[in-house]
Design brief:
Blueprint lengths: L5 H4 L1 H10 L5 E2 H8 L3 H13 L3 E8 L2 E8 L1 H24 L1
Antiparallel strand pairs: 1-3, 2-3
């Protein structure tokens, strides 16, 4: 069994990727409200996910107001699926011991 992806395994990033896997895209305020992080903390996690190739970040302006959208990449979706499969295999090992 491979090691769990440490980038995804961090609870806040797992929540973020799980949320993004269920939508086409989400804006900064939506994620901020859903995951309950500070603005700086959310930005830091999104930076790590972007560097890993798991999310795409699109920054724009609505008039003079900055707007940021996030979406999960194909690589991120695949990594998240692999993460869940690895957790299932750990659970299966537990179930075979009972």
């Amino acid at each position: 069994m491979d090691d769990l992806d440490r980038t995804i395994h961090e609870p806040a990033r797992l929540r973020i990727l799980t949320l993004l896997s269920g939508v086409d895209e989400a804006d900064f305020n939506f994620l901020l409200n859903m995951v309950g992080l500070t603005k700086g903390n959310l930005s830091s996690h999104m930076d790590k996910l972007e560097k890993a190739g798991y999310v795409t970040i699109v920054k724009s302006f609505n008039g003079r107001i900055p707007h940021t959208d996030f979406s999960i990449t194909a690589e991120g979706r695949e990594a998240l699926e692999k993460y869940w499969e690895e957790l299932d295999s750990i659970r299966a090992m537990r179930d075979t011991r009972e």
